[in-house]
Amino acid sequence: MSDMRRLMILFLLVGLAVVLSGCATLSVHSKVNKDGSVESYKLVINTSSFVYGLLAEGAKKEGYESLRESFLSEIPEEMRDKVSYDEVWSGDQVSIIIEARDYVPADDDKVKIRKENGFLIYEDLSFASENNQTSSNELGNALLSSFSLHYYLEMPGKIVESNANVVKDNKAEWHLTGASAFNTRIYAKSEVPGIPGFEAALAIVGLLAAGLLFGRVKG
Question: Which CATH number fits domain 3-218: 3.30.1380, 1.20.1730, 2.60.40, 3.40.50?
Answer without folding.
Answer: 2.60.40
